[in-house]
Specification:
- It comes from Virgisporangium ochraceum.
- Keywords: Membrane, Transmembrane, Transmembrane helix.
- The chain crosses the membrane at residues 36-57.
- This is Integral membrane protein.
- It is built from 2 helices and no strands.
- The chain is mainly alpha-helical.
- It has one domain (2-22, 34-59).
- Helix 1 packs antiparallel against helix 2.
- The model has no long low-confidence stretch (mean pLDDT 92).
């Protein structure tokens, strides 16, 4: 279960960063480029990813 949390959280973090960069018009080549919606949704998804990775790390540290 721990590795699933780590993988899902890391994927969410990467996707959130890409969406943020596209929304801010830094990363082009998509219909999402320059759209304010993705500049807002991206950081939310990235933060959720960080939380999930943290849960995965913490879950692994608790077991002995």
């Amino acid at each position: 279960m721990r590795w699933i949390l780590l993988v899902v959280g890391a994927l969410m973090l990467v996707v959130g960063l890409v969406w943020t960069l596209q929304g801010l018009n830094v990363l082009g080549g998509s219909a999402m480029t320059g759209q304010t919606l993705w500049a807002v949704v991206g950081p939310i998804v990235a933060i959720a990813g960080v939380v999930i990775v943290g849960l995965g790390i913490r879950r692994g540290a608790v077991r002995r």
